[in-house]
Fold this sequence. Notes:
Blueprint: H1 5-19, H2 29-46, H3 48-58, H4 62-68, H5 74-100
Helix pairs in contact: 1-5, 2-5
Amino acid sequence: MHYPATIISSTTSRLQTLFEVDNLPASNLEALHFKLSRVVLQLLTSDLPKLLQILYRIDVDEKAVKEAMVADDSELISERIARLILKRELQKAELRQKYSSR
């Protein structure tokens, strides 16, 4: 799905705040997914409670997270979780834009 640059930028800004990073790309969704999956992987291996807290704050579906974590490969898990995070944050950014223009 194609998202306007403003939605991607808004999502990137929110993710940088949540994950306390400042180097996420704001113009390319695939690059953002790749970089976010690296951040998720780092948290997955070093600070799982923090990752779970962020997922709760973002309001990612718990069932989907459990399904995403069913794998032996932590890189695959981090890519799946990053995709869930992006999907949810893009939804929220779209809703914010939709209702802020009224």
